[in-house]
Specification:
- There is one protein chain.
- The protein is an all-alpha fold.
- It has helices at about 1-15, 25-45, 50-60, 65-75, 75-95, 95-105, 115-130, 135-150, 155-170, 180-185, 190-215, 220-230, 235-240, 245-265, 265-275, 280-295, 300-305, 310-330, 330-345, 345-365, 365-380, 390-400, 410-425, 430-455.
- The N and C termini lie far apart (about 50 Å).
């Protein structure tokens, strides 16, 4: 009851206080409905679908938007992109690619604690950039649990390091996070734009994080050294865990790699063929998912029903639609003008406001919710002749790196903790996470801001 009263009080405050902030009464009502929907999602996370459904329905009833534009703002291009990637990752998992990956890590010659720690972080960062933070953390968490059971060490430090690396790696490409896909679609950014701007910054931030965590977990790394030495010298054990790749695994990897190559060159293909910008980008995962379903037609129903997270897909669809109403109703324009009035129009100062505010909000809210809310504001700033390019990267980095600060800061954090508790019964306290998460989160956000100022124009 207290939570419900809090949501109602917040909505009433926005409804009554909106006109003082420059909103009309109708805009204040729209903002109040948006507030109820978003706060309901955050406070009652398990009921998030109910709140975004109700929010979208109420927006239509109060004529905040018409049905045609609501569907337009639902970002079906992003939704289809996510569905295609989920199916392809499911195919890789089904082919045994990830279990083969575990054995490859253990079989590395003269493996040490330092090497294994770096490899786990690299694997986390690279996989999140290639297939998304959710699929990546599920895979790497299982890898860590198997390795920690094998060498008898505490998995908690490795899980935490993996999650932090996953959130950082997810900012490097537009495949890494629904946040990146959404920004690419709304800002007309190509895969090459991400590789030119986000990827170098992510590499630098990742190296900074690796140094911090290597010092933070030096005792764990030392213990890993002690446990790995007898295993690396046991040739019989190494031969027993060796798993060769079969034809199915190789073909599945080939399909996934072909998708990545097509996405990498999508902009050039669109220019050569005279196609609409980002059209190849958004449809490539769907096309290759179709190829995967033809190849594994015996598993088609399983991939579509089990590997696609339909609850998440529907949530994103209606969340994007609700954020679109903020733009359509003109609320974001009012906020943009207020920012310009308060901070002026230097892109460097606005970037600081956006990266730190989105980072702090992402520490306590889901980062997809934060970015979906920020996008209309950045678009409105663009209409005021502000250079939007650094602003897009500011909300991307802020959302991804701010998610590392708390245990609930990103979906990857929550999933990893859930896997750890279910499989090992181990728990990570809020303050245990906050100590390392706050250090890494604030440091990486600051590094990213400096990189935006000096490298991105």
């Amino acid at each position: 009851m207290k939570k419900i009263l809090f949501i109602i009080a917040a909505a009433l405050a926005i409804l009554l206080g909106g006109p003082k902030l420059g909103l009309s009464f109708h805009q204040s009502m729209i903002a109040a409905i948006f507030c109820v929907a978003i706060m309901g999602v955050l406070i009652y996370w398990e009921l998030r679908l109910s709140f975004v459904f109700l929010g979208a329905g109420l927006m239509l009833l109060v004529r905040a938007i018409d049905l045609e534009n609501l569907i337009k703002f639902a970002s079906l291009d992003v939704i289809l992109f996510l569905i295609g990637v989920m199916i392809l990752v499911g195919m890789l998992n089904d082919a045994g690619f990830f279990y083969w990956l575990v054995t490859r890590l253990i079989r590395i010659k003269k493996i040490t604690g330092e090497k294994l720690f770096i490899l786990i972080m690299l694997l986390s960062g690279v996989l999140s950039g290639l297939m998304g933070e959710v699929a990546s953390i599920i895979i790497v968490s299982k890898v860590i649990l198997d390795i920690s059971h094998l060498i008898d060490i505490d998995p908690v430090p490795l899980i935490m390091a993996s999650v932090l690396a996953t959130n950082i790696g997810s900012s490097g490409t537009l495949l890494g996070n629904p946040v990146g896909i959404l920004i690419a679609a709304r800002a007309n950014l190509s895969f090459e734009d991400f590789m030119r701007n986000a990827f170098p910054a992510t590499v630098i931030v990742f190296i900074v994080t690796l140094v911090i965590l290597s010092l933070w977990y030096r005792k764990t790394i030392k213990k890993m050294n002690e446990k790995l030495k007898p295993i690396s010298e046991n040739s019989l054990f190494i031969s027993l865990i060796t798993i060769p790749t079969d034809l199915r695994t190789k073909i599945s990897i080939g399909i996934f790699v072909m998708m990545l190559v097509t996405i990498f060159f999508h902009h050039r293909i669109e220019v050569i063929c005279g196609l609409e910008e980002n059209s190849i980008l958004m449809m490539t995962p769907i096309i290759f998912a179709g190829i995967a379903l033809l190849y594994r037609r015996d598993r088609m129903r399983h991939y579509v029903e089990r590997e696609v997270e339909w609850a998440s897909v529907l949530f994103f669809l209606f969340l994007f639609a609700l954020a679109g109403v903020i733009k359509f109703s003109g609320i974001s324009d009012v906020i943009a003008r207020s920012l310009i009035t308060k901070f002026g129009n230097p892109a460097s100062l606005l970037s600081a406001v956006l990266i730190y505010s989105s980072g702090i909000l992402s520490a306590v809210l889901d980062n997809t919710v934060v970015v979906a809310t920020y996008i209309p504001i950045v678009q409105s700033l663009g209409s005021l002749n502000i250079n939007m390019n650094p602003l897009w990267w500011a909300i991307l980095f802020g959302a991804c790196y701010g998610g590392n600060i708390t245990i609930i800061g990103s979906t990857a954090n929550i999933i990893a903790i859930d896997i750890l508790e279910k499989n090992r019964g181990a728990k990570i306290s809020f303050y245990q996470w906050l100590k390392v998460g706050l250090t890494v989160g604030l440091t990486t956000t600051t590094v990213a801001y400096l990189l935006i100022i000096f490298l991105i124009r």
